[in-house]
Structures are given as structure tokens and as C-alpha cells.
User: Which sequence fits this backbone?
């Protein structure tokens, strides 16, 4: 059922507030502030979770959250996604709810990142059988991606306090999403890929955030074999990436980066 | 009941792994990696949550998590806290469980930060009636705290991918805790304050992380009236801080900082 689209609202908001602060000398400055709003997801009238979000892509965030948590199996199960900021919530209706929703929601894992993320169900177990093939890459190809990304990170540059994630193919940036939480940004990208029926296997996933276990698992679920981060890596994130076969490049800024996983696929120019 | 202490294990681990990476020229380098381990909390044999943690202070983290989520009311309710890394879990026994645990756990809010944090129950509502008084402060007093903190952030300096939080009084650092999640670090500090019966009202709370709504609420629950961050601020975090009366200083690095809240208490030297 190609090109199926649930009925979706279009309630993305561009939240960029300004405020007056004092600098260390007591001088007034006007600066930008990142917005942060609660968004409560209701799945067939059942309260699932409240996400704190920038709110730029609430429908994609909802879609990706439900997908990544395994709370909905296929896009065609979803009838509609309707965001209503008057009540800070999004109502999702399905053609048929999953039977084992109670069971899925009974286990929750609060993950690291710099927040305490949540995974319902068996997300942590889901990668056990997953195998991906990291493609060959070179310093030049990484620089191309980083160069293409330099126009993005708008909100970050203006107000800070957000993380950006991007889906890249060669030097094309297919989508770039910022949110107050990097897990939100990765969920929204996952939602977009689901909606547009995009494969991950020829893509590079970029994040400004750290590569913790949850980030690696989510990217693996999207079948993306190469991960690029501005920040660091945890031992568990690396272990999972190696186990699945994902290439992992971190501390990527300007002309520097470190290859943590996928060393054999790194084509060093002589 | 002063100086009550539950029976507690002492299973803090110092996780600092090393790995070989390739730099952009294909040269090998040995670098440090932050550890990240799951820790599942069982409260009276009931599975509450799995936290992903560095594992340095698992007992304090557990204590603070239960406190901040309102899952235990007083320290004296807790009989024992026993961490067992063989099964990545911590067993908490109480003298008497709360009656409304089911109700508290039925609502969950996944918060921002760069992860999706979780708050059970009514944490988001709990600050409605809270009022704190931001103390007077000067650039000199802020520099003193920052100077005292410069010896810390060890793990961060070595391996990155962690956040540090500290409880400061004048230029004393009472406690400094690092974790892969800044929410974990703030929970562990809260646990320590509970255990040692420490008041927050003469303290400054420092974090390397961003000041999102959840961070501000947690610090407010600890009755700490002044917040200092290396990073940025969200609009909702600032709104809550102003409502409660908390001073908020962010982007604090070296000799620079910005005062977001508590402007009237900022004593500008002439």
C-alpha cells in the first residue's frame, strides 16, 4: 500500500522567544530562547506519554515515537494524527490497536543521553538479531556531509539548548530536525522516513548529540549503517554499533573526526 | 529521626574504558570511553524503571530517583538499598509501600534535556505552590564557584559524553557527580542531600547541562534558590524559575555568564 498517508494535522510551531538578560558586567542584552512545550500523546484515547518538545514537527515526532517504541506496527494501522496545542496534546487513532499494548507499556527503560529517556517494551532487546553493513567512506565524503550540514543548526546557533539530527545521502541533507531533546529529533526523522517510505541503507545519520546506547539502537532500527556525531560516544553505544555492524564516527567538527567503528571501511587517502 | 540511614550497599563502579580509534588521517589513537550500564530499580520487588548510568553512585541515584518521582515519601520509609551489578539491578525495600504507587506510575512525562526524561506522577504540577528566595550574588561570587569547579569534571575531561552536577556553598563544592545523563546526576545529588539531611537554601546548584523545565523543577524540589549552568536555558525552564523565584545564571564559562533570572539580586560591582 504505497503512498498511504494517515490524516494528519499540520501544527508545527516555530518557537523562538527572546528575553532580556544581564551579562557579567550587568549590561542588558536581548537574547533568543528555545521554546519547550509539553505534548501528550493519546493513542486511541489512551494516554501514552508526555514529550517535552520544541514543537516544530509534532506529527512526525508522534509518528516516530510510536514507531520506535513499537506501539504501532505499520503506518497503515494509523488512521489520523491530530495535534491540538490548546490542550498540548496529540490524538492518534488507529484502525486497530495492538493487543499487547498493556504489556508493552509495563516495561520502561529510562535511558541516558543527558536526560533520562524512556523506552517501552523490548527496544533494548530488539537489536539482538539485527545486522547492517557499514559502507566504505573516506575523509572527503565525511567532510562533504559536514560541509552540507553547516547551513543547518539554525535554532542552535540562535538560541542554543537544542540538538539537531539529520538524514544525509552523499552531500544531500534529506531532512534536518532540531528539538530540545535529541531523542525527539531522531524520533521525528524516523517518523518522516516511515511516512515517506524512505530506506536507511544508503544514508548517513548525523547528530549533534552523544551516541549513547539508545541513539544507536534507534538508528539501527531505521537500518542506517553509518552514524556521524559532533559529540562523544559511550562504551555501550560503541559495543552495540560494533555488534550490529554500524560505522560510528564521532567528535566530527571542521576537519577533525574520529572513527570508532567501521575502521575497515575507512578508505584512507594516501 | 536524625541520622537515619537505610542499609545500603556500596557498589559504585568507576567505568572508564579505552578503545583504539582512527583519526581523520587514519592514524591510530587510544582514547577513553564513558561507561554506560543499565540499572533496573525494584521497589519492594516491583520493577519501576531501568536507568542508563555511569554507575559511580548507584545507591544515591536510586535514592534520589525515588525521592524526586515521589515514589517514597521519607528516608525513614526505606529499609534497604542493594545494588547487584551481576543482574544490573537495585533492590529497594521499604517499611511500608505507598498506597497510590499504581496511580503515580500511570502518568509519565518524557522530558526534554537531550534525552527523553521521565517523570511519574505529578512532578510537573508540584512546583505550583513552591516559592524560593534567590540570594544576592555578584560576579565575584560566581567566579569563585566556577574556579572551585574547575578541578572537577574529571570524567568529562577524560572521555566526554557525561554531564556533571554539583552542589556548591560559597566556594566549597559539597558534592560533584557525573553521569551519562544530567538527570541522573541531579537525582544522585538529591539522594545525597536526603541521606545527609542537607538543606538547599544556602546552596548553588551547578550543572554542565542545559536548564530545561525538568532540571529547574528538580532543583526547586531540593529548595536550592540559585542555579548555574555552563549551557543554555529553555523558555519553559526560565518561566518556571521566575515563577518560583529561583535565580538562573547560564552560559557560564571562564569570565563570562548571563543572568536570566534574579536580576534584582545581581550586585553589579562599580
Assistant:
Amino acid at each position: 500500500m504505497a503512498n498511504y498517508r494517515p490524516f494528519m494535522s499540520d501544527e508545527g510551531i516555530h518557537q523562538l522567544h527572546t528575553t532580556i538578560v544581564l551579562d557579567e558586567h550587568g549590561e542588558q542584552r536581548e537574547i533568543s530562547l528555545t521554546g519547550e512545550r509539553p505534548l501528550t500523546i493519546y493513542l486511541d484515547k489512551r494516554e501514552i506519554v508526555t514529550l517535552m518538545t520544541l514543537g516544530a514537527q509534532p506529527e512526525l515526532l508522534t509518528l516516530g515515537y510510536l514507531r520506535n517504541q513499537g506501539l504501532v506496527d505499520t503506518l497503515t494501522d494509523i488512521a489520523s494524527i491530530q495535534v491540538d496545542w490548546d490542550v498540548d496534546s496529540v490524538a492518534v487513532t488507529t484502525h486497530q490497536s495492538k493487543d499487547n499494548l498493556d504489556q508493552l507499556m509495563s516495561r520502561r527503560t529510562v535511558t541516558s543521553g543527558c536526560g533520562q529517556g524512556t523506552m517501552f517494551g523490548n527496544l533494548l532487546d530488539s537489536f539482538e538479531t539485527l545486522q547492517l553493513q557499514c559502507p566504505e567512506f573516506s575523509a572527503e565524503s565525511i567532510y562533504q556531509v559536514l560541509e552540507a550540514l553547516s547551513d543547518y543548526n539554525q535554532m542552535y546557533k540562535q538560541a542554543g539548548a537544542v540538538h539537531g539530527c539529520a538524514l544525509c545521502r552523499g552531500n544531500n541533507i534529506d531532512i534536518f530536525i532540531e528539538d530540545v531533546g535529541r531523542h525527539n529529533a531522531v524520533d521525528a526523522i524516523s517518523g518522516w522516513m516511515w511516512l515517506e517510505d524512505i530506506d536507511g541503507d544508503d544514508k548517513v545519520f548525523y547528530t549533534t548529540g552523544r551516541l549513547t546506547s539508545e541513539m544507536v539502537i534507534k538508528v539501527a532500527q531505521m537500518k542506517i549503517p553509518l552514524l556521524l556525531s559532533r559529540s562523544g560516544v559511550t562504551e555501550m553505544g560503541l559495543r552495540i554499533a560494533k555488534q550490529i555492524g554500524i560505522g560510528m564516527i564521532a567528535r566530527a567538527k571542521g576537519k577533525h573526526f574520529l572513527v570508532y567503528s567501521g575502521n575497515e571501511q575507512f578508505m584512507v587517502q594516501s
Observations:
- Chain A touches chain B through 72 residues (CB under 8 Å).
- Residues 7-121 of chain A form a domain with the Ubiquitin-like (UB roll) fold (CATH 3.10.20.10).
- The helical segments of chain A are 58-68, 101-106, 139-149, 154-159, 182-196, 213-221, 235-244.
